[in-house]
Structure formats: C-alpha cells, structure tokens
Design goal:
39% helix, 708 residues, 7-stranded mixed beta sheet, 7-stranded parallel beta sheet, alpha/beta
C-alpha cells in the first residue's frame, strides 16, 4: 500500500542566513515578475499573462531539492519560482512574455509561462492540461531501460543512476485520465518520479470538491503500491523543504514514485482573462491573503530573529532593480523573423526525403518471397540488432509478459504477429507489453525519446487510436517546433489500418489518414507491398521525426505483394511515389489496399478497350511526391484520385485540390475522386463491398473520365 505522511508544521531543515535570504529572494522575484507582466499586459506590451502567485514557497523549496541539468522537470504554468530557482533568469522569463526571438522557452512560439530550458533539463511544456504526466513517466522509464539494456556505449553520459523526474500539476488536472495512467505505470515499474500537486483549490472557477471526490487527491491514492504520499502546507517553505527532500530521497533510492500534495493559494485570478471576483467570495480571498507565502515568510524570519529588516529591504530593492532591467532588456529584444515560421517543423539535420535514405535501386535479396508481416518483422530485427536504443512496446507486442512461461508457449508477438519473436531475441527490457491504454503508449514514448531512446510503438488498431490523439497531435508532432528545436521526439507509431476484411465492421475497418496528414511535424506512411513496407519502416526508424506508419491489415498476408528480404540497408525515402503501372491516357493516384484494385481495373480496361492507365502508388502520404503526380498528369491530361477514406473530406480531397490548382492548364477533364461512401464500414460482406472502392467502381470511373 501507499505510504502516507503529513508535514504541516515548520520544517526541521537547517539553513544559514544566506540560504534563507535566497529562498525569500526567489519567492519575491517570482511575484514581482508576475506583477511586471500584469503591468505590461495592461500596457498592451505583452499578449497574455498567467501567474504563479501563491505557489512560490513550495516551488522555491523544490528548486533547492532537485538538481538542474541532472534531474528532469515536467512543469506546468504556475512554476515560475521553480524555474527561477533552477537557473532560469528573470530576463529569460520576460523574453517569453514579449515573444522574443531569444526566448529560451520557445523562441516566441508559445504563450509565456510554458516553461522549457534545454540546459536545465526543463522539458518543453504545453497548454493541454495533464499531457506532461505520461511523458514524465516515460522520461523516468528511460533510466530503467538504459540501466538494463546492454550495448549502449554512452549510457553513463545519458543516465546518472540516481536522477529523478519532477512532474508538477495543479489540483484540477488530477482529474485527467492520464494522471491515473501515469500513476499506474510509475508504481508498476517503481519509477523515480515525484508528482507535485500544487493544490490551490480551484481549476479556473471549478472548486476542488467538484474535480476530486472528497476534495483531497492524496486521500484517493492510498491504494497505489509503493507510492510515497505526503501532504504539506505549500505556503510554508520550510515544511515544503522537508517533505520534498523526503520524496526526492525515496525516489533517488529507487524505492518507487512519490506524490507530494501541497496546499497553496491563488491570490490572483486564474489568468488576466479571468476575474475570480465572479465566483470567489470576499472572505475566501481574504483568508488566502493571510497565507500568502511572500508576506508570511519574511514575517517568520523576522520573528525568529534569523534576518534583519534591512537585509529584507535590500533583497526587495535588488529584486525590483533586477525585474526592471529584465523588462527593459526583453522589450528591446527583437521578435522572431517571419522567415522562421517553417524552421523546426521537422528535423533540420536528418532529411528522410534525401538520397541518404534511397537505396531502393540496390536491394540485396535473399531467401524466398514472403509476406508483409514477415518483412516488417525482419526490418525490426535488423534495426534492433543495429541500434540497442530501439525499444518496442504496445498492447500484446511481447511474446509473453510472464517470462517464466516463455519456454512453454509459442508467443504472441502482436495480434498480427509483426513483433513475434522479438522479445525472445532482444529481451524483455526492449520488447514489452503496455497497459491497455493508447495515451499511455504515446505519452511514455515521447518521454523515452526525449532522453535519446528510439521507441517503435504499436497501436493495435487505428480504430482505437483516439485516446492517444491529444498526445499525438499536441505533443508528439509539436515538440520540436514549440521548443524551437530544443527538444524532439522521433517516435515511430505503427498502426494497423483499413478495411477489406470480412467481418471487420465499424471498429476494425477505419481509415482516416487525413486526420494525421493534416498535422504538421508528423510524417505519415502507408505502404502497399511487402518490399515497400520493409524499406519505408527502416527509413522511419532511422529518421529523426515522428512517423505514423500505417500498416494495412488486408495487405499483411496477400500473396501478390510478396518479396524476398532486401537486406539490412534497404531504404525508401519519404515523399517518393512509385509508378506501378505506366500509361498514357489516364493517371490514377492511390495508395494502400486500393492500389491492387486499381491495377486490376486498369488491366481490364486495357484488355477490353485498349486504353492505357498509369497508376501511381503514393506510399508516402505526408510528405507527398507532387513532382511525380504532376509529371504524370501533364502526360495523360486526365486524373482520378482513389482512396479508402470517405469521399467527403477524406485524404484524396487535398490531392485532388492540389492537382486542380497546379496542373489546371493540362487537364482535359475534371479531377475525379473514387473513395468509400460517406458512411461507416458495415459487418455484412455485401454492404462492405458497396461501401469500399472495388475493381468495378474504379473501372467505371476510369471509363467516365476517359469518355469526357
């Protein structure tokens, strides 16, 4: 069971005068920067403000307990005092407020108080509440994987052995499901992460008892095994020092995770976009004011005879000067140039569309032709042998989680057997099962990737990817851009995809590639053959961007797309389409399972009417090989875009629009689309046949366009 303690009295930590004055300086500096930002916002010199007022004591204490550039930090927007204590300067914080180019948090790309500092190990934070939990767990898990995986030559430079991860949150965010997923994994794996809940009683206007049953998050967590739970008056800096030290020591000793429930106040409104007077009574706000740590701590120091009023006054004067100088410097700093907006959407150093990743013309074939499942498995084996940093996890991907049974069972290796045998080959530290929780998979992968590991994770079915969408859209794809290239998360997300399965029905046949191709920063790949799957997966693993790798279930074991093993260095660059059938009368642009149906329709049309259809397999859905498409359209003057998504708003809509925009002068007919109906995929085979594009519907569309 969890261990629960309380720390509501003055702490026992002994500090000398200089240390006490430094704590006061940190707290006061944080408050004065808040006040300066409020002033600047009212003068229309900055554009947003959210304060850390009332949280300063526990955060100043945390900055003394945890080690910058040694430990790791996943923060939230109230953590100004923590970041100052770790080494961020007042100028750096105000550079963020004005959106300056030199802002180390994001280069002017995020709102102020979205902390991130590479040199201090403060990982880029974002606005969605709660997304930091699973990433922090993944970051802590990185220590576990590094420490147990052989062959990583620089592991001593990457892990310390006793580093911990501090993950902070407000009380409202503990309502998010990812908070509970993070606690589950942290306790299951006994990970070195400290969760600091800064409970000011409100989530904007929603009081804590509405968010949390019983009004106390720490009381709800007592059933988590090995979780050290402590509760403290977070407005008392000395008591906070004591409990945070105990929590950090517990995790440094690798006893498991800890949670500190700190009761703080919020003397200012949630942000300058909020007015707490509308929902908080006067008496409640006055009671908070009496607990204000910035006023309370100096009174304590004077009452105990630890400092003099002159010394406190000197700190106040120096702080005012520091804040004013920082504000002047920030306001004088240049804004980012307009030409920088495309920088760091993708890696500036590793280009997966380049010739470096093109060995397609020189395969080293061995063995008999085999299926897509087999060649994907072979690629994973090759890459895991090459790079010990690769870890593979997801639902059911291991052969058997209970290792003692490995000798008695055949092994699972994924629902479709793509990862079969990898656990046996590379061990349970590199191939392992995750909980049945898609956000857990992606969030942890982001944290692992942040520390240099290469997660290749599996989402079992595209239909169930949606709990992970927040992590995919707002975290994985955005990490590099929002941090101005300070942090990156080059994760490969393998996802089974698509229909054409007898009995697949609504929830095992979904496509929807456009949901992800519309996300900048995310590469999206969808091979149609075994050979392409092998080469493109290898590129995905070796590139430095996050990749969504769509594996069509219908294609896993088709005989027509088999190929021999092309060798361990076979790669196909992203953004390189393939003309799989040359033609002169009509172009069809397609991908995935529709490719083979298009080829059959094209052959039938040629056999019956002598018409020549060129078929382009995109292979890479983002980026797209526009040059190959345009060259073909300029040759044939007619084009069909065929895809498995629904007709309206589906992936092919953008392809069709770009073709019409860029090659209009060469077109002799409208750009036509052939796609699934604007419905869902039904269970009955007769209905599925009508819903999805088939050879006959493709052939009819070809005839219509050729007759135009």
């Amino acid at each position: 069971m969890a261990t629960r303690t309380s720390g509501r009295t003055k702490g026992s930590t002994k500090l000398d005068k200089s240390e006490l004055l430094e704590l006061y300086r940190l707290m006061l500096l944080a408050r004065r920067i808040d006040d300066k930002e409020i002033q600047l916002k009212r003068q229309n010199k900055i554009f947003f403000q959210i304060s850390g007022a009332g949280h300063e004591a526990v955060l100043a204490a945390a900055s003394r307990v945890f080690r910058p550039a040694y430990d790791w930090f996943y923060t939230y927007y109230r953590d100004r005092a923590l970041c100052l204590g770790l080494g961020m300067t007042a100028t750096e914080q105000l550079l963020s407020a004005v959106g300056a180019a030199d802002d180390p948090n994001s280069g002017g790309r995020q709102m102020p108080s979205h902390w991130g500092h590479k040199d201090l190990n403060i990982v880029s934070a974002s606005s969605p509440t709660g997304t930091q939990f699973l990433q922090a767990v993944g970051c802590a898990e990185a220590w576990l994987r590094y420490s147990r995986i052989d062959g990583i030559t620089d592991k001593k430079q990457v892990i310390r052995g006793d580093e911990v991860v501090l993950c902070t949150t407000g009380d409202g965010t503990t309502s998010e499901g990812e908070f509970w997923e993070a606690l589950s994994t942290a306790t299951n794996l006994k990970l070195p992460v400290v969760f600091l809940v800064e409970d000011n009683g409100y989530a904007i206007s929603v009081p804590v008892e509405v968010n949390t049953p019983g009004g106390s998050i720490s009381k709800l967590l007592t059933g988590f095994p090995g979780l050290l739970i402590q509760e403290v008056d977070g407005c008392d800096v000395m008591a906070s020092l004591d409990v945070l030290t105990k929590a950090a020591d517990y995790t440094r000793a690798r006893k498991g995770p800890a949670l500190v429930h700190a009761h703080v106040i919020r003397p200012y409104s949630h942000s300058l976009s909020d007015d707490e007077v509308h929902y908080r009574p006067t008496a409640e706000r006055q009671a908070d004011a009496e607990r204000d740590p910035v006023a309370r701590f100096p009174k304590y120091l004077l009452a105990e005879g630890l400092v003099t009023q002159d010394e406190l006054d000197a700190v106040a004067r120096q702080t005012e000067e520091e804040v004013q100088q920082a504000a002047d410097a920030a306001l004088a700093s240049p804004q980012p140039g307009p030409d920088t907006i495309y920088q760091y959407v993708y890696s500036p150093e590793v280009d997966p569309t380049s010739e470096q990743f093109d060995t397609e013309d020189d395969p080293k074939f061995t063995g008999d032709p085999t299926t897509m499942v087999d060649l994907l498995n072979i690629c994973l084996r090759d890459e895991m042998s090459r790079d010990p940093r690769i870890v593979v996890f997801g639902e059911d991907v291991a052969d058997c989680s209970r290792e003692e049974h490995l000798g008695d069972v055949k092994g699972k290796g994924g629902v479709f057997k793509v990862t079969w045998g990898l656990q046996r080959a590379f061990g349970s530290e590199r191939v392992y099962n995750s909980p049945l929780a898609e956000a857990n998979i992606i969030g942890r992968a982001i944290g692992l990737a942040t520390r240099g590991l290469k997660p290749v994770v599996e989402i079992q079915f595209f239909d169930y990817i949606w709990p992970a969408y927040m992590q995919l859209r707002n975290e994985l794809a955005l990490m590099r851009w929002r941090s101005n290239n300070a942090f990156a998360a080059p994760v490969v997300v393998r996802v089974t995809y698509g229909g054409y399965l007898k009995g697949g029905s609504v929830y095992h046949s979904q496509t929807g590639a456009a949901v992800f191709t519309g996300v900048p920063g995310l590469r999206v790949i969808c091979p149609s053959t075994s050979l392409d799957a092998n080469g493109l997966l290898r590129t995905a693993i070796r590139c430095d961007d996050p990749v969504m790798f769509l594996e069509h279930k219908h294609l896993y074991r088709q005989t027509y797309n088999k190929a021999p093993n092309p060798g361990p260095n076979f790669m196909i660059p992203f953004g390189k389409a393939k003309v799989v059938r040359a033609g002169s009368d009509l172009t069809v642009v397609t991908y995935g399972a529709v490719v083979q149906r298009t080829l059959l329709a094209a052959k039938a049309l040629e056999d019956q009417q002598g018409l020549s259809v060129e078929v382009i397999d995109l292979r890479s859905l983002s980026p797209v090989d526009w040059d190959t498409i345009y060259e073909s359209v300029r040759k044939t003057n007619r084009v069909i875009v065929a895809y498995e998504d629904s007709l309206s708003w589906g992936y092919g809509a953008e392809i069709a629009a770009r073709i019409a925009d860029e090659t209009f002068a060469f077109l002799d007919a409208p750009v036509k689309r052939v796609a699934a109906t604007d419905t869902f995929v039904a269970y009955a085979p007769e209905l599925e046949d009508v819903i999805l594009p088939q050879v006959e519907s493709l052939k009819r569309a070809m005839e219509e366009i050729l007759a135009f």
